[in-house]
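Hey all, sorry for the wall of text incoming. These are the two entities for the joint prediction.
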Amino acid sequence: MIRLKDVEMEYENGTKAIRGISLSIEDGEFVFLVGPSGSGKSTIIKLLIGEVEPCRGRIMINGFSVSNISEKQIPLMRRTLGVIFQDFRLIEKKTVYDNLSFVMRAVGASPKEIKKRIPYVLHLVGLEKKAGNYPTELSGGEQQRVAIARALVNNPNTIIADEPTGNLDPERSLELMSLLVKINQLGTTVVVVTHEKDLVDRFGKRVITIDSGHVVNDSVGGYVGGCIHG
Amino acid sequence: MAKHEFGYFAREGVSNMFSHGFMSFAAVGITVACLLIMGTFTLVAVNANELLRDLEQENEIVAYVDDSYTDAQSKALQKKLEAVPNVVSVTYISKEQATADFAAEYSDEELFQDLDPEIFEDRYALKIGNLNQISQTVQQVTAIEGISDVAAHEEIAGGFITVRNVATVVCVALIVILFVVSVFIISNTIKLTTFDRREEIAIMRMVGATNGFIRWPFVYEGFMMGLLGAVIAFFSQWGLYAAVTRGVSNNDTLQLIRVIPFQELWVPVAVVFAAAGILIGVGGSLSAIRKFLQV
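and here's what came out:
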């Protein structure tokens, strides 16, 4: 569960990125976070993963209060999240398998658990035959599926995807979004930050529209780019 | 730490080390050089100290009694001499005994075998405690009424004291400077590794790795570089010491100097080198990784 209450965020250079946002995302929901460039979407992601702290307001994520979280609790909070980036952020010198195994090791998984979990996750994203390949040997769509597998491998409560289709062609984008919907249907909360209107409209999920640091729309159905709706 | 984690950290540490081969080589090389210089000066100081101790044990000063003193008066001086600070033992040698000792020392010289005791003086052989205070002790003994003269090898003792003091000061200064230099270089080497792996570190943080988990491979890397440097430095030090020992024993002028055999020193040298190497390595890696661990 994600809750933001009157959250404000101002960067050191004086830019006010978030101006009093309140929103709530329940467990198991699929939510699109949309808005034009500079609207504050990326700042919300940074706030959710604990990379920056809000200046005011409260943020609760999966039982952790991010607003006043201790340094020791940050890793524990992050273990409840899986993050997917537009540029995949895979480690090129590691194979697909090693890209996944190292994040499992990072949270203390045993070799036995790793051996059991990775084939399952790779099967889920349709890459079971690519375990031994290096990221550079894969297409953009495949690399993003590895990134999804990596986000899933530690079995998080919530997946946060920041412009996951930004580097993909429309067909691959649709494929990837369908995969995220499938993951959501298995019980994981999914928050997708995007500005691709067609894709958002196609899935008919909840859409939260951000503009100039405000929530300007929160509705189920389609993209409301930049317009203020009640 | 679980056993599988230990293996993982160690593998990652070794892999880090080899992925920056040249810088690792430079860091190990600098550690070796620093330990070798520190070790050499320390060993010089240790040997000078040992020589000084030998000299202190063997060194005695001789206080001659005034010719005009009778036997009884001469013997009465013993208590006054024993009361002088830094005098450890006092042995009375009569002029007859001195004559006999002299004859014995030059037993192959017929000329010295039948000397008149009257040409010798009654004397006291004084053993002193701290060689550093030899000058003051000589002055105090000379000031005693009835003592006509004092013979002491102050220059030799002073020379050894100077060597020991210089070696100690240089040694301490070098240890501090070279330690800081080594930590700095290892720290920079590991900074390069961490810079190269910043993406990996960012991902690890993103998925909830603890700072400890991220830190350990770098600590292992520093540990192994420090230890490797210590091992190489130890054997180099051994070789160097053996060469110097041979040089001293083959040199006619220096052969009176007793060099402590390395067999008597290798354990403390190995322990100190290992501890210093590991401290340099781990200290360097912790300092390098610190800024990457800020949340």
